[in-house]
Structure formats: structure tokens, C-alpha cells
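Reopening this one. Same input as before:
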Amino acid sequence: MLAFMLFAFVASITPGPTNLLVLSNSARYGLRAALPIILGAAVGAALIVWLVGSGLGAALLEVPTVQPLLNGVGIAWLSWLAWKIYSSPVQALEPGEAAAPLGLWGAAALQVINPKTWMMALAVAGVFIDVAATTGSRR
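Same output, byte for byte:
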């Protein structure tokens, strides 16, 4: 249990898109506006871990072409995001121009396209799920 708690702590504090959104929204709107984002991200990540642990991860790994395809899509997605961040013009936000906070459902949906969440879910399923307990067999 301690190993899982340490893993979850490290996974939640490392930089990623969700943590940047929590930081920016709390800086703009305060802690109260960031709480739904934190809760939504936690719910979304837990749902993905549940899906992967329930068999989605194993089903994806059963098809030999899926893993290289997912790697390619992940590389392309992260490269595109990096390029968009690099090539975006820098603009100062005026007090009245800020967009509305992301919210609970937006943060939960963000986890679906967050590569860090998927990597964490696959790691959790691969390391912390006891195959013998889930299949009923003994090692």
C-alpha cells in the first residue's frame, strides 16, 4: 500500500497539462475555482485506471499493431502540442479577457487526451493489480 501511495503522490505532483491548468485557474480565479478542476481530474484519472485495470489495457496489448500505433499517435500528439505552444504568440491577459474556469467535467474529459494519465494508468495496472486475485488463480 505504501508503494502505491508513493506512486500516486509522485504521479499527481509531476508537471503535466492538468497541473498547469490547476495552477493557472487558481492564480486567475482563486482556490475555490480550482477545486472542481482537481476533483474532475481525479475522477477522470480514476475512471481511466478502472478501464485499463478492467481489461481495456490487456485487450489493447493483445493486438500486435495497437502498441506501435498508440506510440505513434502519442508522439504525434505531443509534438503537435509542443509546436503549438512554441509557435503561439505571447499575449498578456487583461482582467476582463480571461476565459471561464475549466470546471469539473472539462477536467475529467481532459484526462482522456492526457498522455500522462494513460501512462500512469498502464503503470498502475501493470504493477499494482494482482493477476491471481483478479483471475482466481494461484501463483
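So the earlier flakiness isn't reproducible anymore. For the record, The longest helix spans residues 31-62.
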